[in-house]
Amino acid sequence: MNHHLFTKFRIGQSDQCPCQTGSMTTEHLLQTCPRHDGVRSQIWAEATTVQGKLYGSLDDLQRTATFARRTGVSI
Ligand SMILES: [Zn+2]
């Protein structure tokens, strides 16, 4: 993802997300990015922590995988 590439390898112009509301981090994409509000609310009806989405139960991880597939982002 852009954030990794920029901070680790200095590739790309910026780690700013195209939504212009924050850096393109895993947490931003999963939790707050307005570009993915629709998909996010379909997958997680209740507020879920980023830790739960990345390190939770198998069900949580499957939801995260579905989110990544539908949004086309790499987590
Ligand atoms: Zn964003």
List key phrases describing it.
75 residues; mainly alpha; 56% helix; binds zinc ion; Reverse transcriptase
The poorly predicted ranges are none
Average pLDDT, rounded to a whole number, is: 87
Helix count equals: 5
Strand content: under 5%
Count of distinct strands: 0
Q: What helical percentage do the residues reach?
A: 55-70%
Task: Give the helices and strands as they follow along the chain.
Answer: HHHHH
- Biggest sheet overview: none
Rounded radius of gyration (Å): 13 Å
* Rough outline: globular
Q: What small molecules does this complex bind?
A: zinc ion
Distance between the first and last residues' Cα? 7 Å
**Class of secondary structure makeup:** mainly alpha
Q: How would you portray this structure in words?
A:
56% of the residues lie in helices and 0% in strands. It has 5 helices and no strands. The protein has helices at residues 2-9, 26-32, 37-43, 50-55, 58-71. With 75 residues, the protein is mainly α. The chain is globular and about 35 Å long. The protein has a domain at 25-75. It binds zinc ion. Zinc ion binds next to loops. Zinc ion binds at residues 17, 19, 21-22, 28, 33, 35.
